[in-house]
Amino acid sequence: MRARTLEEAWMTGDGRATAARTPTVTVLGTGGGDPDTADTAAGADLLAAADAVLATPDVESTVLFYAEAWRVERLPDLAGAVAAVADLVGLGSRRVVLAVPGDPATSPGCRALLDGLRVAGIRAEARPGVSLVPPRLSPMPW
Predict the structure, then answer these.
(1) For the chain, how long is the longest CA-to-CA vector?
(2) How far apart (Å, rounded) are the C-alpha atoms in residues 64 and 46?
(3) Is 10 helix (H, G, I), strand (E, B) or coil?
(4) pLDDT at 111 (0 to 100)
(5) How far apart are the C-alpha atoms of 22 and 122, rounded to whole Å?
(6) What H or E segment, with its residue span, contains residue 108?
(7) What is the enclosing helix (H) or strand (E) of 29?
(8) Do residues 99 and 30 touch, judged by C-beta distance below 8 A?
(9) What is the DSSP code (8-state) at residue 121?
């Protein structure tokens, strides 16, 4: 018996396939913090499952530590993030991670970004408590 394709599963009403076809953007915070206490593993898992990753120059090096370079696209700033995500969704990406500096749950700019994505018809979520922390360069505290 052959496995059904995603399109066939979606056409038959399989809920899992329908959920997989819904474009989702996860806004993930990056930056300071302790790599031992931050939920970096969950952030790395989100990046591994993403079709595409968007990052601004200030967080790009941290993102590249956790994700393959061919999946990471650089944004000059967050002002064009909604258009960039819409372009990726139009090209077939269903899971996009947008890496932003700091905690997206407390940033007013990120809340506006999430609202803009939702207005564009893209499911968007911020992951509070999940963060990408740059790896330690040295075990010494300085």
Answers:
(1) 60
(2) 13
(3) helix
(4) 83
(5) 8
(6) helix 108-119
(7) strand 24-30
(8) yes
(9) T
pLDDT at position 7 is: 44
Render each residue's pLDDT in the chain as its tens digit; 142 residues: 444 444 444 444 444 444 456 788 998 888 765 555 567 778 888 888 999 999 988 888 888 888 888 889 998 888 888 888 888 888 888 899 998 888 887 777 788 888 888 888 888 888 877 778 776 665 555 5
Token output for 59: 């967080």
Place of tokens 């120059």: 57
What is the separation, in whole angstroms, between the first and last Cα of the chain? 60
Amino acid at 60: E
14 Cβ neighbours under 8 A, 6+ residues apart? 4
| Paired tokens of 86 | 């819409």
Is the CB of residue 54 less than 8 Å from the CB of residue 34? no
